[in-house]
Amino acid sequence: MSDSAPIPTAAPGRSSDRPGSVRAPTIQRVVRLRGMEIEPTGQTGPMSVVKINAITIPEGMGPQLEGRFAGRAKMVESFEGFEDFQLLRPVEGESRYFVYTRWASEENFQAWMNSQDFSKGHGTGQADGNTDADGEQARKPVAQGADLMSFEVVEHVVKGA
What we know:
By secondary structure, this protein is α+β, with helices and mostly antiparallel strands. It has helices spanning 62-77, 106-113, 116-124; strands spanning 31-33, 36-38, 49-56, 82-88, 97-103, 145-152. 20% of the residues lie in helices and 22% in strands.
């Protein structure tokens, strides 16, 4: 017995076998069966977790923040359980930057948070060029504050999947 039913792939009121009909995008839904999650690929296991860090910065400091993230992008990319990263620049109605990361599990995220690579990238900032020319003193952080939000992926739609 499942908690969710498949979603039809044909647009409402249209048959996919009629000439000229238009198919809606296919949406894959995870089925939960007795506490186990079955993904459309047939794999079982826990769902990904998403962490969104909302970063408040002083006006005009966006390019510096973006540069620092670009300088340390490779550090997280090779970490076990890492799946996705996006740095979202505010455009309208929001002044904070959002850092979106997706992880295979909460344990993978916590391991990253407790790693030396995380400390290098967030503590002294040396990994992102956050030092003076002589390499001795770290520059001040760009962020004035940050709020970490946690989510569990319930549904993931990918175009063409």
